[in-house]
Design brief:
The protein is an alpha+beta fold. It is built from four helices and five strands; from the N terminus they run βααβββαβα. The termini are far apart.
Length: 143
C-alpha cells in the first residue's frame, strides 16, 4: 500500500479526529486540538503541516517550521507522529522526505530536528535520510 503525503491547507473534522488520535502517541501532555487550534497552526506563515495517508486514512503528520534569521533561512522538523498501526511502513520516511524537499525548495540553509534518545527507530530513520547527530545542548526554560 502506498503512502500519499499532502500539505494541509484547511482544518476539517477529519483532521481534528486524526490529531485527537495521533497527538497522544507523541505527547502525553499535549492538549487536544480543535478546529480553531488547527486553523491557527495552519495559518501561521512559518508552518507547513504535512499529513500522510495510507488507504485513504490519515496515519501521520509532520510540521515543518521555517524562519528567516540573520544567518539565513532555517528549517526545523517538529512533531513527527506516525500512528502505531502504520509504523515501519514508510510513513515517517515519506513525511520527512516531503519536508526536506520543501525546505530545500525554499533554500533553507539547514534542516534540523530533535528526537528523544529512547526513540531508536526514529533515530535510525533520520540517519538513513542523511541527518547526523550534532554535538549540541538543547535548553528549555522550565515551566
Amino acid at each position: 500500500m502506498t503512502v500519499d503525503v499532502e500539505v494541509v491547507r484547511e482544518p476539517s473534522d477529519e483532521l481534528v479526529s486524526a490529531f485527537a488520535r495521533l497527538l497522544p502517541q507523541l505527547s502525553r501532555s499535549a492538549a487536544p486540538l480543535d478546529h480553531s487550534d488547527i486553523a491557527r497552526m495552519l495559518s501561521h506563515e512559518a508552518n507547513t503541516v504535512f499529513l500522510a495517508r495510507r488507504g485513504g486514512h490519515i496515519v501521520g503528520t509532520l510540521t515543518l517550521v521555517m524562519v528567516p534569521i540573520p544567518s539565513g533561512l532555517r528549517a526545523r522538523i517538529e512533531d513527527v507522529v506516525v500512528d502505531e498501526s502504520a509504523r515501519g511502513t514508510g510513513v515517517g520516511t515519506a513525511l520527512t522526505k516531503a519536508a526536506i524537499e520543501c525546505a530545500q525548495s525554499a533554500n533553507a540553509r539547514t534542516v534540523d530536528l530533535t528526537s528523544r534518545p529512547d526513540r531508536d527507530s526514529a533515530g535510525r530513520l533520520y540517519e538513513r535520510l542523511g541527518f547526523r547527530e550534532r554535538d549540541s545542548r538543547v535548553y528549555r526554560l522550565a515551566e
